[in-house]
Amino acid sequence: MKFNDEDAGDLPPFFKKWNYLYAFVIGHLIYLILLFYLFTKAFE
Amino acid sequence: MKTLDWIVLIGTLSFIVIYGVWKTRGSKNIEGYLKGDNTMKWWTIGLSIMATQASAITFLSAPGQAYDDGMRFVQFYFGLPIAMVILSITVVPIYHKLKVYTAYEYLENRFDLKTRVLTAILFLTQRGLAAGFTIFAPSLILSTLLGWNIYYTNLVIGLMVIIYTVSGGTKAVAQTQKYQMGVILLGMVAAGILVVKLMPENVGFVDALEIAGKTGRLNVVDLEFDPTSKYNIWSGLIGGGFLALSYFGTDQSQVARYLTGSSIGQSRLGLLFNGIIKIPMQFFILLIGALVYVFYIFQPAPLFFNNVIEERTIQSEVGAEYLDKKERYDNINTEKRQYAIGYLEALDEGNDLEAKKKVQALQQADKKSKAVKKEALSVIEKADPNADTNDTNFIFLTFVINYLPAGLVGLIIAVIFSASMSSTSSELNALASTTIVDIYKRLYKKNASERHYLNASKVFTMFWGVYAILFAMYANRLGTLIEAVNKLGSLVYGTILGVFLVAFYMKNIKARETFIAAIISESIILLCFFFTDIPFLWYNVIGSLIVLIVAYLLKILRPDSNITSNN
Fold it and tell me: Where are the domains of chain B?
């Protein structure tokens, strides 16, 4: 699987590189799972 | 429904249909009609992807699921962001660079014509049936709870979708979906606020969460690896990711949404937007269901939410038995109410011991009420062995109709219509694209004018719209065969995914091996369907794995397989 920014000039508006944006999406998922886990535990 | 509800409902739906027709009039070629001239920005693509996935059943079923079983269903979506990233990296650039209209067009590029046509036909078979069901399912619930004629409800939903989808094509689908998502989010936020407001005075939002949590309704994350459990973090990440990969990567109703992007970047952003927003949205919808459960602790809760089936049971010879269960259920609910109030009071007083006692009593009462409901369901089955004993889809709408103020009921019904219309429009658009691009233009009429293809696209959109309405009309007579129709969808999805996985990730495998593997996979899936008891959801995994393994084995066994067939 290639992680590249072949499309010069078509970079994401929020991060400098696509890889950073992908990392943000995965990081967001991890953050949500952690948040939901704490939520579950808090009201268990 | 009150007059204000009708005004809100008709006003909202009319605006969407008229706006869709007006805003997207005048497509001159099939590129504009089927790909929206590749002008869509990421936020339109993202909302369109979300609106396509979220059918009416999503908004009817998810809160009901949280009411019954808690919020653990949200884990089903944990694999989705990972799938969005994988698709953004691998699939989106390929589709864009090849300038394909459909996902199956890529397969001819990668393999050959017969693989393209096979997968296109499998998609048309599966999605054609699903389109009818997308209209029928909410119609059935609305007609049951509101006493509407199911045939007229099917007709109204179907015709509204046909009007703007035939008129404006892909652009109309994307533009209307933005507003449909707006209506959906507005309606669900209003319902969420209202359910908290309607709780007794001394029960606030955090109090409601305390009760929901203690009765197991806030079980959002389950870390335990249990293959028999439907929803835990592992099945969500692996199974959910697998499913999202196949749905967003190979199903034309989703692929068409991000093919409209003005660039690879815009399409990627649309998918990633979905990857970020989908889980919180689903969490919120499920939370509403958990809060509705708490609401019904403080209000008389129906034993069975499908009032038509309940009434039929009461009128039957086992009616007395059912009423007995109902009385027991009501008594337990009164107990639950007392324990819940006692628990909150103990919490306020800081009396931990008393709070613990009340929680245990509340949990016991909840278990008892579940047991009584189970008994009541057997009584319903005794009255009518063919009765659908799953009332999950009726829970949220029953709450809406009975407790929300005038105007908001109309808005929530508009949410249901909007969700149904947004999914159906994507399906009709995708069915028409596949029919025209992969079958009609490729096999029958190769060199006609742009005008001819544009008109043919409109005719095929209309055809699939009428087909969906007719199926929805007929579905009412199918009864329990509806599940068989869903199974039929699962019969083909695994094979399609397997073919695409080979195409994307096994570059040294050619057309011949893949086509034979697809035929073998489909045959084995059919054998599983007719001769085994394997649950049909597993067909997706089995089908795709068979394609991957058989294609690989054929590649090893046939060293001359580099010679691909010509078309």
Answer: 3-296+402-478, 307-390, 479-567
In a domain, A2, yes or no: no
Residue B209 touches partner A, C-beta closer than 8 Å: yes
A40·B82 Cβ contact <8 A: no
Contact residues, chain A, for B89 at CB < 8 Å: 1-3, 18, 22
Residue B374, SS3? helix
User: Which structural domain, as residue segments, surrounds residue A33?
Assistant: 16-44
Q: Does residue A21 fall inside a structural domain? A: yes
Q: What is the pLDDT of residues B433-482, one digit of tens each?
A: 999 999 999 998 888 888 899 999 999 999 999 999 998 888 766 554 45
Residue of A2, A13, A29 lying closest to B81 (CB–CB): A29
Chain A residues with CB under 8 Å of B72 CB are none
Asked if residues B22 and B178 have their Cβ atoms less than 8 Å apart, the reply is no
> What pLDDT digit, counting tens, does each position of B262-297 carry?
899 999 999 999 999 999 999 999 999 999 999 999
| A26/B85 CB distance under 8 A | yes
CA B261 vs. chain centroid, Å, equals 23
Q: In terms of CATH, what superfamily is B3-296+402-478?
A: Sodium/glucose cotransporter (1.20.1730.10)
B223 touches chain A (CB under 8 A): yes
Cβ–Cβ under 8 Å, residues B437 and B105: yes
Chain A hits for B214, Cβ within 8 Å: 43-44
Q: How far is CA B289 from the centre of its chain?
A: 17
Q: For B40, list phi and psi in degrees, rounded to 5.
A: -75, 140
Report the alpha-carbon distance of residue B305 to residue B145 in Å, rounded: 9
Chain-chain contact of A32 with B209 (C-beta, under 8 angstroms): no
B89 touches chain A (CB under 8 A): yes
Q: How big is chain B, counted in residues? A: 567
Respond yes or no on whether ipTM tops 0.90.
Answer: no
Query: Is residue B210 within 8 angstroms of chain A, CB to CB?
Result: yes
Nearest to B267 by CA among B13, B524, B517, B44: B44
Q: State the first-to-last Cα distance of chain B, in angstroms, to the nearest integer.
A: 59
Mutate to test the interface with B, among A22, A30, A35, A37 (most CBs of B within 10 A): A22
Q: Is B318 on the interface with A (CB under 8 A)?
A: no
**Each residue's pLDDT tens digit, B483-523:** 555 566 678 878 888 999 999 888 889 899 999 999 999 99
Looking at the domain assignment, is residue A9 inside a domain?
no
The total domain count for chain A is: 1
Query: Is the distance from CB of B290 to CB of B218 less than 8 angstroms?
Result: yes
In a domain, residue A6? The reply is no
φ/ψ region of B304 (left if φ > 0, alpha if ψ in -120 to 50, else beta) reads: beta
Pair B52, B131: CB distance under 8 Å: no
CA of B74: which chain A residue's CA is closest? A36
